[in-house]
Amino acid sequence: MAPKLDVSGVGADGESVSVMEGDLATLITDVKTTQQEDIKWYFDDTRIAQITGDLSFICTDVGCNEDTERFRDRLKLDHQTGSLTITDVNTTDSGLYELKIISIRRSSEKSFSVTVYDVPAAERDEMKRKSVKEGESVTLDPGVTKNPNDVMRWYFNDICIAVVNGDKRKICTDDQWDEKLKLDHQTGSLTITNTRTTDSGEYKLQIISSRFSIIKSFSVYVTDSGLSSAAVAGICAAATVCVLLLMAISLYLLHCPVRRKEYPV
């Protein structure tokens, strides 16, 4: 089993972020662009994204530097904040990301040290793809160590169903989910009890801090038991009748007198 990751921290190079292969990571600028600002992102000293305050120039990856195709259309820029999103991260994305914010009044720089952990495909599939039979429980474990200030939001088909904020847990949907969901406020893991086929679909966990956001995706498939609740009830009733009948026959044979046939001497 892959070790649990401490997804954030502060190191010598600035903010540190740890993610697993296949996750989506957003590096947050914590600013809002104005007409005077120019935001640039660098990876290992190579410009990979840029946006001007008036939105007259926006580029990512090869649009900024023709000699680099490392990210292959996996970079997204938020036009309001300049925050950088890396989709489907892989180990080659590990390294130092530098943010430069340039304006008329002042300039500032921030850095993010990103580490992408390689998890074997079979283990990753076991963690992110779950298949259970109807009525069973399934647990979605993010595989991270939750930091006290992080907010975790669980989504089912893009609808928020649960939130973990510090040591507080909240089911943010109807009563149907309230009875089925169990949240671990220490790890952020989500357990779905008494599953139904309607619970099949895509679940996403968003981990939010002040400097980054990570999204992990999980697929859950609930297989039909093949029998309706009425059919199951009928089978149980029939089985009960059979048991009672066998008990009655056993008692009759036990207490029924045995007649011996007499032969003439």
Indicate the topology:
Elements lengths: L4 E2 L1 E4 L2 E7 L3 E4 L10 E6 L2 E7 L5 E3 L14 E3 L6 E3 L8 E8 L4 E11 L3 H8 E5 L4 E3 L3 E2 L5 E6 L2 E7 L2 E4 L3 H4 L2 E3 L6 E3 L8 E8 L3 E12 L5 H27 L10
Parallel strand pairs: 1-14, 3-11, 12-21
Antiparallel strand pairs: 2-3, 4-9, 4-21, 5-6, 5-10, 6-7, 8-9, 10-11, 13-19, 15-16, 15-20, 16-17, 18-19, 20-21
Pfam family, one: V-set
Keywords: Membrane, Transmembrane, Transmembrane helix
InterPro entries: Ig-like_dom (IPR007110), Ig-like_dom_sf (IPR036179), Ig-like_fold (IPR013783), Ig_sub (IPR003599), Ig_V-set (IPR013106)
Give the tags.
single chain; about 260 residues; Immunoglobulin-like; 2 domains; 7-stranded mixed beta sheet; 3 helices; about 15% helix; membrane; Ig-like_dom
Radius of gyration: 29 Å
Which of globular, elongated, flat, extended, rod-shaped describes the shape?
Answer: elongated
Assembly level:
single chain
- Would you identify the CATH architecture of the largest domain? Sandwich
Please give the largest β-sheet.
Answer: 9 strands, mixed
| SSE order | EEEEEEEEEEEHEEEEEEHEEEEH
Q: Tally of extended strands?
A: 21
CATH class of the largest domain: Mainly Beta
Distance between the termini: 84 Å
Number of helices: 3
- Counting structural domains, the number is 2
Can you tell me the residue ranges where pLDDT is under 50 for at least 5 consecutive residues?
none
Report strand %. 35-45%
Into which percent range does the helicity of residues fall?
Answer: 10-25%
CATH fourth-tier homologous superfamily of the largest domain: Immunoglobulins
Structural class assignment: mainly beta
Domain Ig-like: 3-115
Transmembrane segments: 230-254
Pfam families: Ig_3, V-set
Keywords: Membrane, Transmembrane, Transmembrane helix
